[in-house]
Amino acid sequence: MPKGFPCWPTVYGYLTWWHDDGTVERVHDALRERVREAEGHDPEPSAGPIDSQPTRTVDSVPAATRGFDAGKKVKGDKRFIVTDTLGLLLAVHVVAASVQDRDGARHPLLWTCLDHPGVKKTWADQGFAGRLVDRTARILGRELKIVRKDPGQKGFQVQPKRWAVERTLSSLSRPGLRAAARTPKP
């Protein structure tokens, strides 16, 4: 633990308590609203992008919760995130890497609808196309718009409306953050 903090069991105990009673979520929501207002936006978002990212997991993660993403050649898990247009998190869902985007997106889209009823439109890449678009409109009453690449595009290019989620996923993937998140408890 950093200098000045109590021993890790005490800190972990408070974090668990605050998580279970909803304090962590309330603080997160209040901070997001303040950042949005400081940036000249309404406190509640009205739209945002969704994306997924496969991540390698350590061998200590149970095999039942790991999968293999054949497209990215990654064995591990896959995180789905929905952000607002500033890149601030609205929903997170982690599944096995073998789960297809259109299947893994169902929960975070539902949670976004329930927790942020003002979000009426979500942008996604081509991996989310198909029956998920119709399901989102029919069941959730929300628009899921697929942002397609230009036909002649080669390599990575920032896609309109989706850059915020890409930036957030990139910041989550920085080696220092990954190492800190996976450091085992003493």
Molecular structure report:
Strands 1, 2, 3, 4, 5 and 6 form a six-stranded mixed β-sheet that branches. This protein folds into two domains: about 1-45, no CATH class; about 45-150 and about 160-180, Nucleotidyltransferase, domain 5 (2-Layer Sandwich), CATH 3.30.420.10. It contains seven helices and six strands; from the N terminus they run H-H-E-E-E-E-H-H-E-H-E-H-H. The longest helix has 16 residues, at about 25-40. It has about 190 residues and is of the alpha/beta class. Mean pLDDT is about 85; it is low at about 180-185.
| Tally of alpha and pi helices | 7
CATH first level of the largest domain: Alpha Beta
User: Quick one: CATH superfamily of the largest domain?
Assistant: Ribonuclease H-like superfamily/Ribonuclease H
- State which percent range the strand residues make up: 15-25%
Helix content: 25-40%
Class from helix and strand fractions? alpha/beta
Number of strands: 6
Structural domains: how many: 2
What does the oligomeric state look like here? Answer: single chain
Any descriptors?
186 residues; Nucleotidyltransferase, domain 5; 6 strands; alpha/beta; 2 domains
Summarize, please.
Helix content is about 40%, strand content about 20%. With about 190 residues, the protein is of the alpha/beta class. The chain has two domains: about 45 residues, no CATH class; about 130 residues, Ribonuclease H-like superfamily/Ribonuclease H (Nucleotidyltransferase, domain 5, 2-Layer Sandwich), CATH 3.30.420.
